[in-house]
Amino acid sequence: MKKGKVWLVGAGPGDAQLLTKKAEKIIETADVIIYDALVGQAVIAGLPEKSEKVYVGKRSSHHALPQDEINKCLVRYAGQGKKVVRLKGGDPFLFGRGGEEIEELIRSEIDYEVVPGITSALAVPAYNGIPVTHRDYCSSLHIITGHKRQGQKLKLDYTALCRMDGTLVFLMGVASTPEICDGLTDAGMDPEMPAALLSQGTTAGQRSLISTVSQLPQKMQEEPLPTPAILVIGKVCALADKFRWYEKLPLAGTRVVLTRPCQRMQRMSEQFCSLGAEVIKMPAIRICPISNAEMADKSLTQALKQIESYQWLVFTSPSGVDVFFEQCAESKFDIRRLSSVKIAVIGSGTGRRLELHGIYADLMPEEYSAAALGDALAQRADRHDRILIARAEAGSLDLLARLQKDVHHDVDDIAIYRTEVVERTGESTGRDADMLKGLAVDKRTVFVFTSASTVRGTVINLDRETCRQMRAVCIGEQTAQEAKRYEIPVQVAERADEEALVQKVLECYGNKELILEKGRGR
User: Fold this and answer.
1) CA–CA separation, 522 vs 519, rounded Å?
2) Residue 176, SS3?
3) In the annotation, is 36 catalytic?
């Protein structure tokens, strides 16, 4: 069998937006992804569904898999001819033991590449307003491991570190912070030297303690911070309050879980990220086109052959637009044949999706619902017009009912796709289920539901008590009613579109003082 290949990929410090383009491309093509504990939740949630995921996380005094077993794991999967991504928090070569893994790959004659990642040593201080170098404060940076073997002291030359007169960044050193601070002051460092402990940087959990090298250990006891955290010591730490920027974003400290299908997440994800939210992509459903063989009396292919016989084409979702045009391409259907057909859409999101194909809707109801679309179309369509509806298998019956309420319009109602629940059970996805439960009870997290099916696909992995602890925003009343069936506390967007949904999250969970100030033009 042909041997596979291993890519050692840096996942960055936690924020999925800090993953490099090259890393994203390689991850997308991986057969197997072997990942660490320090890989951010947002990155893990965005890993491709088709890839096998293997967790080999290591925390202090607890290893899911020893390093030598990880090395063998890489060789074993690559020996099966697979594309293997070894995904590491930060950068693979900065205290990531990437060199040891490469030595094993060389011995086993396995091809490999290294994809550098953004290290937390630079990114986390930056997100906390601390420039690790500044010409008025220091001209050197020193990155040091704070990790030590259990029961042993750190082997550091504190005198040499003090003599450097630069910024010191200690990774994996929370437990060692008191020892480090004492060692530096004993070696002659000014006890008033600024110091900072930075926790869960670049994520919604970001917190910091800004103090001095002599007072930080006591402050840590008074205000314990969760790991992972890094220790920064140097004059530049005094700039943190002045240079802070992340906390000034309206949704900083808020984690938004998107549950719609992967193909439909990008635009909304970008909106939330621009407002400072940490976005976790956890699709609850997937879109599955229905083949012609599955369709009973009517199929989309048959309808396309006689498209000129229809006066109206109706789309009830952006996914319906996507599947329709995919089928058109597969059937080699000439889009110019749609020139005589008017098109109705349920709302602005569906309209925007249609515009990507260079086509603009002729009809969009003021209220974005199936019933409103049916009423609007019944008023506009002539009684002799023939109507083609291309939509989901489990779509709302209100549309068809309204079209045939007063005038019995000639309608071909064709289900062109169905939604399926994304399962989060089994060996490779069990950690996804654990992550979902953790997010559901985290008061920094808000779930965004864009359809009743996204609600059902999410709660199938949760118990009722967990549902009661969730925070959620729904795109419309129908979606909200489905969430309430499971006792999920919900807020509802003013309109059934993406902009109103984002605005509702901002109103309910954003930094209200900051939003008020911006509203006053400050």
Assistant:
1) 8
2) coil
3) yes
pLDDT (average), residues 344-348: 93
The catalytic position among 15, 36, 91, 375 is 36
Q: Are 146 and 176 in contact (CB under 8 A)?
A: yes
* Cα atoms in the Cβ-side hemisphere of radius 13 Å centred on 452: 12
Does residue 3 carry a catalytic annotation?
no
Give dist(CA 289, CA 267) in Å, integer: 22
Of 3, 5, 22, 58, which one is the catalytic site residue?
A: 58
Q: Which two tokens stand for residue 67?
A: 């390093």
Residues 6+ apart with CB under 8 A from 66: none
Smallest Cα–Cα separation from 84: which of 61, 36, 51?
A: 51
Three-class SS state of 194:
strand
Closest CA to 44 of 347, 435, 415: 435
The DSSP secondary-structure symbol of 175 reads: T
User: What phi and psi values does residue 69 have, to the nearest 5 degrees?
Assistant: -75, -35
Q: What pLDDT, on the 0 to 100 scale, is given for residue 521?
A: 45
Q: List the structure tokens of 89.
A: 């928090």
Give long-range contacts, CB 8 A cutoff, 24+ apart: 218-225: 220/177, 220/178, 225/174, 225/197, 225/199
Quick: pLDDT tens for 199-250: 999 999 999 999 999 999 999 999 999 999 999 999 999 999 999 999 999 9
Strands 278-281 and 32-35: unpaired
